[in-house]
TrEMBL record, chain A:
The chain crosses the membrane at residues 37-58, 78-100, 121-140, 160-183, 203-228, 248-271, 283-304, 319-341, 353-378, 393-413, 425-448, 468-489. This is Cytochrome C oxidase subunit I. Gene3D superfamilies: Cytochrome c oxidase-like, subunit I domain. Coiled coil: none annotated. It comes from the Bacteria. Keywords: Electron transport, Heme, Iron, Membrane, Metal-binding, Respiratory chain, Transmembrane, Transmembrane helix, Transport. It is a multi-pass membrane protein. Residues 19-528 form the Cytochrome oxidase subunit I profile domain. PANTHER family: CYTOCHROME C OXIDASE SUBUNIT 1. It comes from Draconibacterium sediminis.
UniProtKB/TrEMBL annotation, chain B:
It is a multi-pass membrane protein. The chain crosses the membrane at residues 12-34, 40-60, 72-94. Pfam families: COX4_pro (PF03626). Keywords: Cell membrane, Membrane, Transmembrane, Transmembrane helix. Signal peptide: none annotated. This is Cytochrome C oxidase subunit IV. It comes from the Bacteria. Its main location: membrane. It is found in: Cell membrane. One of its GO terms (cellular component) is plasma membrane.
Length: 537, 96
């Protein structure tokens, strides 16, 4: 551990510890440096995933083969999915902003287990390298889709084992981060930081950590079973050997549905910080948001079967999963109601993070409501495995988690880097990105309703118009993304120095210098009776 | 939050007793496979595994001496596990 005397006056970006240069970063146990390591790693993987998505959209610009054949297309959507799910949105907000902000928000010097935290990042990098090995070496890039569905996952001749092992290792990274955050939130809150005074972002990280800890081992074991099935033919999922492929889907979705909440809960937490800050008003229904967070974390465990309505499940199970799916929509709706009510009669200060936050609410609502179409048994049978599902999923995961990530990035950027970005360019970036997003994914709802299947590199002539619009949208979206990245990268180096609290927020991270010192606080903060994360009145 | 100053010290004797119990149960779970139990074979294996897990959690992982909220968390995890198993069998038991 660093000593206070050694770090006097230095912030975490400039502090010179035991190692110099790059080693000073990749062996740092400072939660903020680890957060930035995650940011750079995840941003790199996100850019890779975007390029693959762009290639897929280009292929779909016209019917028939445009730039790739069917097998390459299958491999492309598989790699796009594996990268975006396991390497971007699952670690996403918790690993980046959780690491950067959680300890400061609760008045702590670091997370509970700093070395374990660094190990999480190393495991993440190891997982990434393993998956990249699957792409570059062996008998062909995996083509199963990111879900690795049995029985194809043990029949496909592609190089699947390193990808499965990579996902397994990435799971360990996620579990350790969850464990670390759970202990940190329980044990390291500063004096006066009662549970009823925790910022909502911390509450959502708490719910997320539970899911990471409890659900991730299930997918780990399931992926091991697939590997055993491939190598030894043990017959757990293979019907030819008495196994049940639907069991694979159960096990996979027992993790992967809660994983959707790993993605979206911290996103909701970030939005719950941004809306009251830019409305300069106490969050409406603080306790209701906490209750809905925990309800989502809990009920989210019990609805996995709605991914399997057409897989041959029993009718009883289908009724049950459909009912609970409708119930899990309620806490999400409660949150939306609370955000809107917070804005009502607030002194709204329209800045870039606020634009991202309100556009998040819009796309999240569209994604959520289209999810009900898929949660209802009758309509799901009509649109399952069509472009409609892809549109819904991207509205929720990209529109939800992605928009919240950018919102959080623009919100905490001055704190993280100690510099302010160019607000005009940031707003232009948001607008172009938002328009591109709508143009890219909205036509897919229509295409899916008209019957265009997902995961095909070709389509009928009647779907051409919608696909052209969608591909054009992907170009606009990428333009927006480039504007945002260039603006942020440039501003991190050359932006005007940021104030301690440029948004007039009330949470603890805005009481420390920008960028924060190595140990966050000169003196351990103490919260008084009247202090609170949203006391604007 | 303040650190716990008090740590319960468990005598070695207790650890040895638990270790012996675990070994006995391990051999018993192997031994029982020689008896034909039909559809209860899996249930018997699981029963032994559950008893062993409870012993490990209670004594080796100090759950017996922990605060109630820690016990509650562990109980909650097991409750979730049971619920997930029950829900999965909503599919398997009712397939036509």
């Amino acid at each position: 551990m660093h000593t206070t005397n050694a770090v006097n006056g230095a912030n975490y970006l400039t502090y010179q510890g035991k190692y110099k240069g790059l080693l000073g970063w990749i062996f740092s146990t400072d939660h903020k440096r680890i957060g930035l390591l995650y940011l750079y790693s995840i941003a790199t993987m996100f850019a890779t995933g975007v390029l693959l998505g762009l290639a897929m959209k280009f292929e779909l610009l016209a019917p028939g083969k445009t730039i790739m054949d069917a097998q390459t297309y299958n491999a492309t959507f598989t790699v796009h999915g594996v990268i975006m799910i396991f390497m971007v949105v699952v670690p996403g907000l918790p690993a980046v902003f959780g690491n950067l902000m959680l300890p400061i928000m609760i008045g702590a010097k670091d997370v509970a287990f700093p070395k374990l935290n660094l190990l999480s990042w190393w495991l993440y990098v190891t997982g990434v390298v393993l998956v990249l090995c699957a792409l570059l070496f062996g008998s062909g890039t995996p083509d199963t889709g990111w879900t690795f569905y049995a029985p194809y996952s043990f029949k496909s001749g592609t190089n699947l084992l390193p990808a499965i092992f990579g996902a397994f290792v990435l799971g360990f990274s996620s579990i350790l981060t969850g464990l670390n955050f759970l202990v940190t939130i329980h044990r390291l809150r500063c004096p006066g930081m009662k549970w009823s005074k925790l910022p909502l972002f911390v509450w959502t990280l708490y719910g997320t950590a539970w899911i990471q800890l409890l659900a991730t081992p299930v997918v780990g074991i399931t992926l091991v079973l697939v590997a055993l099935e491939r190598v030894f033919g043990v017959g757990i999922f293979d019907p030819a050997l008495g196994g049940d492929p639907v069991l694979y889907q159960h096990l996979f979705w027992i993790y992967s549905h809660p994983a959707v909440y790993i993605m979206i809960l911290p996103a909701m937490g970030a939005i719950s910080e941004i809306i009251p800050t830019f409305s300069q008003k106490h969050i409406f229904g603080y306790k209701a948001i906490i209750a809905s967070t925990m309800a989502i974390a809990f009920v989210g465990y019990l609805v996995w079967g709605h991914h399997m309505f057409t897989a041959g499940m029993s009718g009883t199970a289908q009724y049950y999963f459909s009912l609970l799916t409708f119930i899990v929509a309620i806490p999400s709706a409660i949150k939306v109601f609370n955000w809107i009510s917070t804005m009502y009669k607030g002194s709204i200060n329209i800045q870039t993070p606020f634009y991202w936050a309100v556009s998040f609410i819009f796309v999240f609502m569209v994604g959520g409501l289209s999810g009900l179409v898929l949660g209802a048994l009758a309509t799901d049978i009509y649109v399952h495995d069509t472009a409609f599902v892809v549109a819904h999923f991207h509205y929720i995961v990209f529109g939800g988690t992605g928009f919240a990530f950018f919102a959080a990035m623009h919100y905490w950027f001055p704190k993280i880097f100690g510099r302010m970005y160019d607000k005009a360019w940031a707003n232009i970036g948001w607008l172009v990105f938002f328009i591109g997003f709508l143009a890219l994914y909205s036509p897919m709802f229509y295409l899916g309703m008209m019957g265009m299947p997902r995961r095909y590199y070709d389509y009928l002539e009647e779907f051409h118009g919608g696909n052209i619009l969608s591909t054009l949208g992907s170009w606009v979206l990428v333009t927006g993304f480039i504007i945002i990245v260039v603006n942020l990268v440039r501003s991190a180096r050359k932006g005007a120095p940021a104030e301690v609290n440029p948004w007039h927020s009330k949470t603890l991270e805005w009481t420390v210098p920008s960028p924060p010192p190595v140990l966050n606080f000169d003196k351990e903060p103490v919260l008084g009776e009247k202090d609170g994360p949203y006391n604007y009145e | 939050m303040s650190e716990d100053k008090h740590h319960h010290i468990v005598p070695y004797r207790l650890y040895v007793i638990v270790l012996v119990a675990l070994l006995v149960l391990t051999f018993a779970s192997i031994g029982i496979t020689s008896i034909e139990l039909g559809e209860f074979t899996v249930a018997a294996a699981l029963l032994f595994a559950v008893v062993k897990s409870v012993l490990v959690l209670t004594y080796f992982m100090h759950l017996k001496y922990d605060k109630p909220y820690i016990k509650l968390m562990v109980a909650f995890v097991f409750a979730i596990f049971v619920v997930v198993i029950v829900i999965t069998f909503l599919d398997y038991l009712y397939r036509v």
